[in-house]
Amino acid sequence: MPEETATLSTGTEKTEDTATAPSTSADKADGMDIDTEAKRLMGAGQRHLVMKDVRSSVTSFQEASSLLAKKYGETADECAEAFYSYGTSLLELARMENGVLGNALEGMPEDEEEGEKEEDANIPSADNLDEEGEDSEESEENESTEEKETEDEDVGNLQLAWEMLDLSKMIFKRQKSREAQLKAAQAHLKLGEVSTESENYAQAVEDFLACLDIQKEHLEEHDRLLAETHYHLGLAYQYSSKHEEAISHFTQSVGVIEKRMDVLTKQLEALLDETAEEVKKEMDELKDLLPDIKEKIEDSKEAQKNATVAKIALKETLVGGSSGFSQENVSTSSSTAVEKSGDSTVPVTNCVSDISHLIRKKRKPGEESPLKDKDAKKPKQEPVANGAGNGDAVVPTNEEVEKAEEVSMETATVESTA
């Protein structure tokens, strides 16, 4: 972990060590000059944040925190602001490093494809398999070590950010002034952001709700801070797949911004030109925020819809087997009903195929057709000498002829009706 992110522990001895590591500010500051030096470092840290120099801001806030903790004690009211700024800068540093790591990982697939192409071009021989295996193992170990170090550093920054923000929240909360309570709310907000970065969404929701409760007590309903808190709550619920709650808080965030714009519009009519410019600037900023929040609302609605469809599909899959059997039963019962309807008076035009089916059914399973009867009777004929037969079939009896004619007439009747 870089020196600028060295832990400011709750112990006095470790605080002294981290204070002297980054610079000699602690050595130069003595007695009454500590407050002045700490104030200078706080100003420098804020400037570094504005200039996006996050690492330098971490260093400045860490030194200021160390000086004040050494003089007043780590739970003193004088340390709250420095601890809050230190924790906020650490959070930004963790986000920055996550972004850098993400950008570095985006190029990984291309490198792997290039490596595969090289392996295809150069097929290893039996002599160098062992050497290549050893080199590959060493390379994998080095990569895993580097990734672990980066991960440990990132976790350390987030953990330290949590500790500093939690400490500042505790100090602010015990103060009764409105200003201190609102700063405690902001500490809750940043704690929620740390939990969101760590993917601990349940804890994030808890801190965001605590922030919202304090803000509702001390802020007007059109204050932009309320819109920000609702937005963060919406994100936390969205990430944890609680889409209904996400939509609710995104919508409330839009509502607060619209109320704020209405208030500013009324103020704009009674203000002078110079002040009016500032109001117009804020209104433009609010207008720019609305599309993003409304897009989040649509995303949450779509995700909620997809989740509902997925649940229905899963339910149908689970009960699919039993529903299939039901369909077979319905089909069988329908056929049975049609068969039974053959006994009743049913219009022929609606049941032609069914009647033909019934006609075929009239022959009992044990009965055989006249042709089969004829074949069956052949063995009973007297044997004919080889080559002496004339190919004549056995003449059927009168009963067999009448039965064949009856079947033929019934078939012809059905065909003519069809």
From TrEMBL:
Gene3D superfamilies: Tetratricopeptide repeat domain (1.25.40.10). It is found in: Nucleus. Residues 1-26, 324-353 have a biased composition (Polar residues). Residues 1-31, 106-157, 323-418 are annotated as: Disordered. The keyword Membrane does not apply. The keyword Nucleus applies. TPR repeats lie at residues 185-218, 227-260. SUPFAM superfamilies: TPR-like. InterPro entries: NASP-like, TPR-like_helical_dom_sf, TPR_rpt. One of its GO terms (cellular component) is nucleoplasm. Residues 365-381 have a biased composition (Basic and acidic residues). One of its GO terms (molecular function) is histone binding. GO terms for biological process: CENP-A containing chromatin assembly; DNA replication-dependent chromatin assembly. Its main location: nucleus. It comes from the Eukaryota. Residues 254-303 form a coiled coil. Residues 108-121, 128-155 have a biased composition (Acidic residues). Keywords: Coiled coil, Nucleus, Repeat, TPR repeat. Belongs to the NASP family. This is Uncharacterized protein LOC734974 isoform X2. The lineage of its organism: Eukaryota, Metazoa, Chordata, Craniata, Vertebrata.
